[in-house]
Amino acid sequence: MTTFALIGAGPGLGLASARRFAAAGHSVALISRSIENLNGLTAELARDGIEAGGFAADVLDIESLTAALYAAGATLGPVEILQYSPVPRADFMRPVLDTGADDLDAPLAFSVKGPTTAVNAVLPGMRELGRGTLLFVNGSSAVRPNPNVAGTSIAFAAESAYARMLHDTLAPENIHAAQLIVPGAIRPDAEHSSPDALAQRLYDMHTGRDGFRHYSEPLPD
């Protein structure tokens, strides 16, 4: 059995993604900062008969994130699918003219160093398997910079560049990197951007392996 590793586990998209990939036969590794959050999510999945493990790590802490992913692979099986979708902190979203150089340190660590750390941790196992999928989830500021949320606009653009380079470089090794852009809020009543709809879209990106950038719905004008 191979593992679906989710960075940014929560009760919305994270839980829906865990259920969708578990339904396809993967064990589930949930990664977030809070042990209490992880215990609640793994217990909920266990009630549905889903094998899941929780591994505490902060994406801003390279050592803890690396250790969590190594532990996930050792405990549950090699990571075949990685989903990077932690929710940015509110203080990343300042207007551009109120954003100083130091204000970009945490957003860039969150959206560039975090994904790089995660990929470097799981890539050797994917190469041994001969296959793998790297899924990145971002808001619309990744492709349409918004001066009201400068930190995420800059950091998401950098994350997009990194993910695109992975897509181009790893394709010959049967390792697929793809990005899902979610233009609006993730809501249970949204036709295309509900947690369940997005989880299915991510699963389809994993199996379809078609192109790099996907949109849950068109960007508003």
How does this model look, in words?
There is one protein chain. With 221 residues, this protein is an alpha/beta fold. It is built from 6 helices and 7 strands, in the order βαβαβαβαβαβαβ. The protein has helices at 13-23, 35-47, 62-76, 105-129, 150-170, 195-208, and strands at 3-7, 27-32, 52-56, 79-84, 132-139, 175-182, 213-215. Strands 3-2-1-4-5-6-7 form a 7-stranded parallel sheet, sandwiched between helices. α2 (35-47) links the parallel β2 and β3 (52-56). The radius of gyration is 16 Å and the shape is globular. 43% of the residues are buried. InterPro entries: NAD(P)-bd_dom_sf, SDR_fam.
Keywords:
alpha/beta, seven-stranded parallel sheet, 221 residues, 6 helices
